[in-house]
Write a structure and sequence with these properties.
Elements (H helix, E strand, L loop, with lengths): L5 H27 L5 H26 L8 H6 L6 H24 L5 H27 L11 H44 L5 H6 L4 H43 L2 H8 L3 H24 L3 H32 L7
Amino acid sequence: MNVAELPMILFTVIAQMCVGAFLVLGVVQTAGSLRFSAKAIDQVADPALLAIGPAMIFGLAVSMFHMHDVTHTFNVIRHVGSSWLSREILFGTGFAALGFLFAVVQLLKWGHPRLRQGLAVLTALVGLGLVYSMSMVYYSLVTVPAWHSWFVPLQFFATAIILGSLAIGTALVVTTLVHARQVARGLSAPDADSGRKVSLRERFTTHADPAVRDEVEALLAVSVRGIVITAFVAAAVLLVAIPLYLGGLTAVGGVALQSVEVYAGGLFVARLGLLALGAGLLAVFTYFIAAKPRENLGRLVVVLTTSFVLVFVAEVLGRALFYESMFRVGV
């Protein structure tokens, strides 16, 4: 792995994950509003907002190291009309700022719900612009056959969908578990006298608002199952597209063959294996145990977290190979 490219590897992967997470969370809230109360949706979805902002800020901060001098950022912004890199920076800072603003107004319930929904749509559109701009930064380099390909935007958007889905799924079950443990503290006093240990199922069942408890469980089950299906399908598309992409480069020949050779090592095998395991086998297992989150909350946390970590590592490896595959035509 080229350590010099590590800042851009982390920035692109994390930023795309954040965009995907915001979109998935928006779908959870919008689709959930058709069946569940606002109180149940807010309890399940709002805590996940807290994870997107810091991750995006970290990704933007890491990307600055790629420029060696942070002041170069301001020079890049001056060429928004002609440079995809400038647009990437503009969309990146815009997404981070709008995402932070939306998180504040949503968590504090400022303004009318319609206004907050409008802000969420604007943030999502800017996020999509960010991922597209990222892909065009590389696609526009016609002298690099491995980058001037349909596969680049597909890979970037696939990363956003897969990692974003699993990140939100993990955030949903982890925050639910934390909430359950907080509520369980209310049982600790009477249970301390009897010496009886409070089970995880009781922690989930004992809700601060019993009227919302069943809705929270149903919403969590539907959301997690939809999330892992989305990640599974996106990963399957990516796993099918990769050999087609490499086959296309082989047909081009010349410098493109040098790029194909990059994908012949152990890192490539590890990338495919981790992706298939994290977004494939574990996703299928998660789908079945998510049907009863009350009984399986602890296992959901372990499996989804493991799935997310494996896929995150897989995408970092994939992005490292992507940068290693840069071989130019000519001088």
